[in-house]
Amino acid sequence: MNETIHWTEHGRNMHAIWHSDSRHPAPSHIQTISQINTEQALRLMRQNTALLWRGDYHQGKQLLAAIKKRVHSKARTHTDFHKHRLQQAQHSRLFQQLLIEIQPDGLLKNNRAPNIAAALNDVFGSPNQHTLLLPLHLLLGYIGAHEWHKAGVAIPALNGKKIHIPYGVFSPVRGEYLELVAQAKLPSPCHTAWDIGTGSGVLAAILAQRGIPHITATDNSTRAIACAQANIQRLKLNEQIHIQHINLFPTGRTDLIICNPPWLPAKPSSDIETALYDPEHQMLQTFLTQAKNHLTPHGQVWLIMSDIAEHLGLRPKEALPKWISTAGLKLIHKTDIQPQHPKARQQHHPLAYARNREITSLWQLAAK
Q: What CA–CA distances, in Å, run from 263 to 227, 266, 360?
């Protein structure tokens, strides 16, 4: 969300470009501060007054951390998914009320502020030319993502080679489903493959490593396309993998179509959540409905899905098999694996009852 917002500071009329990745509205009332305690800050923020932090950068971080700790300590625990999501959105909107001003070329005027130009360039693709206002917690997310991007994620299914993921692109930390793709039996012959919603490009890279000579990876996200292109080039797989900035399918037919769609049927509250949430499974059902028309006679569809939506009561257990059948597809083989990520083992998370029972599956499908 980008718009010009105005405020008054020391009798002067000020303005800057408001930037936030969330879908909450821009603040309408801004108060500049350089010192305030947690209770005073929370009282103003709950009255819809955004606080523009002019004090020491690290003290601003400490204030934000204290605000989050206070809010979370008093929050009710909701085991209902929708109530949990609503509470998350309310907290997000509240935390968005502590702002920081960024000068052109990524400069911060706050005392002891770091150089954030590289982190912002990672997000925006070029140095910012305007004064920006954005939530401090979002800026900290940008900085953390930049360090994560530089370090990369080692992928065992790629023999330990790294995938580098910038802010705004889904990270392949769920290594268990990558292993399913690396080990599943390919259709025969398998000269071509499509990776639909490629994101970081990791699934396309695994298929290329398995020897498929012609792979097309698609995505409708500009950030994802740039990320996938960089990873494919870094892995020297340009000859095998061609990337297209389109929604869902290229034209023609292929031997293998692979897709790891969003697993939860809920509305995203920010752009980055579109990789996780698919309202009413619209993308999934569209993918299944159209996939059969793009297969060669011996072709297969590989669908990567978690059953967590079923444990959360968001999708009946029989829904996915029914959608597959209605789309003119049949199940050839299904391989299940338990998630290995740390969140699956957390016992105190409100949704632990679902996460602890979650199974990730590779559905290998063919035309009826």
A: 22, 9, 10
Question: Are 114 and 61 in contact, with CB atoms under 8 Å apart?
Answer: no
Same domain flag for 105 and 242: no
**Domain extent at residue 37:** 2-148
d(CA 344, CA 311): 13
> Among the three residues 104, 121, 148, which one is the final residue of a domain in this structure?
148
DSSP letter at 187 equals P
Alpha carbon distance 52, 30 (integer Å): 7
Residue 256 sits in a domain whose CATH number is: 3.40.50.150
Question: Which residues are CB-contacts of 156 (< 8 A; sequence separation ≥ 6)?
Answer: 175, 178, 179
- 254 with 304, same domain: the answer is yes
Joined together, the tokens standing for residue 143 give: 């900085």
Instruction: Return d(Cα 127, Cα 16) in angstroms, integer.
Output: 16
Q: Indicate if 122 and 180 belong to the same structural domain.
A: no
Asked if 95 and 23 sit in the same domain, the reply is yes
**Looking at the 3D structure of the chain, how many domains does it have?**
2
Q: Would you call the peptide bond into 265 cis, given omega within 30 degrees of 0 as the criterion?
A: no
Beta bridge partners of 13: 8
| Residue 186 and residue 110 share a domain | no
Q: Is 290 exposed, middle or buried (0-12, 13-18, 19+ CB in 10 A)?
A: middle
Q: Name every residue whose Cβ is closer than 8 Å to that of residue 256 and which is 6 or more positions away in sequence.
A: 186, 187, 190, 192, 193, 194, 207, 212, 299, 300, 301, 302
pTM: 0.92
Place of tokens 């989050």: 68
CA atoms of 190 and 35, how far apart (whole Å)? 64
- 129 and 175 share a domain? no
Q: With bands split at pLDDT 50, 70 and 90, how would you rate the model's confidence at 55?
A: very high
In a shared domain, residues 198 and 306: yes
Is the separation of the CB atoms in 128 and 106 below 8 Å?
Answer: yes
pLDDT digits (tens, 9 = 90+) for 270-326: 777 888 899 999 999 999 999 999 999 999 999 999 999 999 999 999 999 999 999
Length of the chain: 368
